[in-house]
Design brief:
This protein has about 550 residues and is α/β, with parallel strands linked by helices. The protein has helices at about 40-45, 45-50, 85-100, 115-120, 185-200, 225-240, 255-260, 295-310, 325-330, 340-350, 380-390, 395-405, 410, 440-445, 450-465, 470; strands at about 20, 55-60, 60-65, 75-80, 100-110, 135-140, 155-160, 165-170, 205, 245-250, 270-275, 315, 355-360, 475, 485-490, 495-500, 520-525, 535-544. Helix content is about 30%, strand content about 15%.
Amino acid sequence: MSNIILDKSKHGWWKSAVFYQIYPKSFQDTNADGIGDLRGIISRLDYLQELGIDGIWLSPVCQSPQVDNGYDISDYCAIDPMFGSLSDMEELIVEAEKRGITIIMDLVLNHCSDQHFWFLEALKGRDNPYHDFFIWRDGDGVTPPNEMKATFGGSAWTYVPELGQYYFHQFAVEQPDLNWDNPAMRAELYKSIRFWVEKGVGGFRLDVIDQIGKVADQMITANGPRLHEFLQELSREAFPEEGLVTVGEAWGATVDSAKIYSAEDGSELSMVFQFQHMCLDQGPEKWDFKPLYLPDLKACYKNWQQGLHTEGWNSLFLNNHDLPRIVSRWGNDCDEHRVNSAKMLATMAHGMQGTPYIYQGEELGMTNIRLPIEEYADIEIQNIYRERTAAGWHPEDVMASIYARGRDNARTPMQWTAKDGAGFTQGKPWLPINGNHTYINAEAALADPDSVFYYYKKLIELRKSHEVFRSGWFELLDPDNEKVFAYTRDTEKEHLLVVCNFSGETLPFDVPERFCGCEMLIGNYSDGEPGLRPYEAAMLYYRT
């Protein structure tokens, strides 16, 4: 199959594309400081070209105090020295483009760092022109304006005695929310975005974008009354080019709101990240987990696949920098089943309508890690351990939740080789490397034609060469089956059956008559024995 090059000047090119998320801190270190950098990404572009991806979603690299892993930006038009220089970024954009790869930057438009020039100026006085770039309310330092809580704990209001005012922050104290009601603030943000577009960036992943229409006095965060007005102006002023990709993170998105966000007219965003499927195996809190009930997952996918068909566009993902590794979460990461369950999960996701996002290491079948509590870097992990043990939880129970749910599972360094440092660094890595890098690594995967890597490569090729992946109607089969996920995709001429066994058992499965004897586009078992073997997956296809 030849590598198909997409015309990225056209609206909607991303419907045939596959993106790859890089968490720069953990991807490739080139200066032995134990932290990944932009030059490291440049050095691995040939690897990504071999995989066949069309774009890189680059987690935050703008200048930041790193209170929240770069999601607290102190200069929208500068690169954090941790990752390199502006010239390194310019070189990355150019070198990626030579390989048919578009760079998508991660931007935070809901809030910034308290070290940003705007906020430092805002602190100087109520009459400062930058003061109204943020949300302030008068107060006495005793009673906040309302009972709103911040996502990272505590009140969403922080008092500044010198001003006699509170400022609003939905996240950390060091992340003041921007005042989107101020047109001057919006205009400055748009200038920052245009700075990167003119450098050759092909689009943006927009962090918590559904919260920019907040109404702090009414305790409204997501889906505020002016949200769509703001998004439409953002699109007009900052993203006028036909081929720019905009991906909105929207935890509160519904099918109906996603139709507006990602309407075909392009008036707001190209697509959304929604998270309903990723919340199905947790209790009231993310740390309270339960087994995935497969019929719930199937019903969720059916809702989104059918609901957005011809009316919007979805992102397809199972991993990211905030989520545990999917092969450990919904697959089976024991040596016997890891490879097949990783391929099975990829088959399920890549057979659907939407734009797939592969998170670094997913194409290798990388797994979760278990560390002593003191070796975890994530502040969220340290906080939950401290809070729950103080509340009387047994430390072993708290650690079980961290092993299953902790964000550092996804942030361990990329496993390039079996050597010390995993080919990631010649120094001490900022986060421990998973010990299984001795056999789960890119070098081994590239040498094995039956690896998870080459399975992903083939899935990417299939999505570009068959229209059914882009526009086929989704129909769920056997919705109540608790172990098998099967569905069809159909256009007038192309027909696809996707079958996935989520269990370690061999199960009976009756192939629908119209698919009997059809071509197998891809499968994770080499022979054609009857039944579905443990974690077996296949795509059957025919044309009419």
